[in-house]
Structures are given as C-alpha cells and as structure tokens.
Amino acid sequence: MKRLLATCLALLSLVMGSSAIAGDTTALTAIKERGTLRVGLSTFVPWAMRDKQGELIGFEVDVARRLADDAGLKVEFIPTAWDGIIPALLANKFDVIIGGMTITERRKKSVLFSIPYSHSGIQLAANKKLAKDLTTIESYNSRRVKIAVRRGATTATLAKKLFPRAKIYQFDDDNMAFQEVLNGNAHAVIASTPKPEHETLRHSYLLYMPFKDPLANGDEGFVMRLGDDELKAYFDGWIAARTNDGFLQERYDYWFKTLEWEDIVADY
C-alpha cells in the first residue's frame, strides 16, 4: 500500500512539472502559477454547506482542501447555483467543479470528467411496521404497496420502472415524501443518497433500509473543461492515491453515514 501511494504521488509531481517544461499555458500551468485552485460548487447537504459561523463545510469542502494542500496550493471556493455551474466552468469562472456531479454520457459531451471519487445512488427506506413482511425488492411491486417519491425527480422515474404495479405517490420535495412514510400512509420512500441514510438515523425507531445495495448507482467525478487533459491526469492520480490510502472513504463515511456534524451546521 505504501509503495503504491508513493508511486501515485510521484506521478502527481511529474505531471505538475511537465506543463512548465512544455512551455504551454495549460489549465494546470495557470493554476500552478496562480498558486490557487478555484473550485466551483453548489450548496447541498452534506456535499457543501455553511456552518453556524458561515464557513463552508462538507464532503466536497474536505476533498477540495486536501487536494489543494497536497498540491501546495491555496483553495478558493466559488459557490454557484446548480443550474448555472457548468456554464460558469466553461466561462472560466473557476478551474474545476467539485460538487457531487454524476458522470453521465450526456454531460461528457460538454465537459471532461475525472475518474470517480465518490459513489452514490438511490435507496429505499421503509416503514418498519407497514413493510415488515416486504423482504425482497420484488415484494414491493404489488398493488397493495404505496411508495412515496419527489415529483419530477429521477427517483420517481425509477420507482415507476422498478415497481409498475405499486401505487406511486408524488410530492413536491423529499421531506414531504418521507413524512408520508413516517405518518404511516406509505410503505416506503425512494430518494437519492444520503437522504435515506440520514432519515433512518434520525427516525431509527420507525424507518429502516431493507436492502444493502442501492436500487441504482451513480459515480461522481471532478468536472473540467474539454481539452484540460493534463489537469485530468493530475486529478486522476490524486483520486487514485487518496482512494488507496482511505481518505476519500473516511470522509464520505463521516458526512454520509453519520450525523455527528449536524449540530455545527446552520439551519437547513
């Protein structure tokens, strides 16, 4: 493990120095000369959010800070609305998006992704009393089963696909969908990570996640402009190193599988 980590870090140093040798003003060269990595992100709990002092905290913040520190750079966070974050990247408002963006073929047409640094998905949380006899995924595909989802979301589409016989109730937001299950009006709710994990921790007396594996998986990557291949090579090497030494998993588990941080977060 130590030998692999040392090799990855050596490769990172080689990539960082190669752009200067080539003499080209690449994105990596510009970052190195500036001495600051500009990171675009949107505020989504627990990816990135404000603490009670107004400072940014969260999984993405930890990742970006460690990335910059390892590279000997400062980091500048540029919070950006989600619907405008890719246009802002393309307009050179920042160097990279580290913001929980799922890698998709459609997005690959306009931006460049690193290898995955986190893996999320869509999970089902169920009412312990109502769903106690529903022990398999197939058992939820029944006319007597009621499933709550957020209207218009990917989760709603997936629910209809996996459980065509179930009654699908749609709500304006995830909180309303979970409340329907907590109130005993639906057997289960389907939502994206980490909402099911966090709500089952908050309401462990009533909610549980019956299936270990998610109903659908997603991979998140750093996002760059097309053509920033040298920068991608650097990020890929860093992600490989931090995956192998356990840093990324440790930070993911803290923010997504516990609520130890909840008391320091501003109201959300």
Automatic annotation (TrEMBL):
UniProt keyword list: Signal
Domain Ionotropic glutamate receptor C-terminal positions: 36-258
Gene Ontology CC terms: cell envelope; membrane
Protein's cellular compartments: Cell envelope
Gene Ontology MF, one: ligand-gated monoatomic ion channel activity
Domain Solute-binding protein family 3/N-terminal, chain residue ranges per copy: 36-259
Record InterPro entries: Iontro_rcpt_C (IPR001320), SBP_3_CS (IPR018313), Solute-binding_3/MltF_N (IPR001638)
Sections of the chain in a coiled coil: none
Protein name: Amino acid ABC transporter, periplasmic amino acid-binding protein
Organism, scientific name: Photobacterium marinum
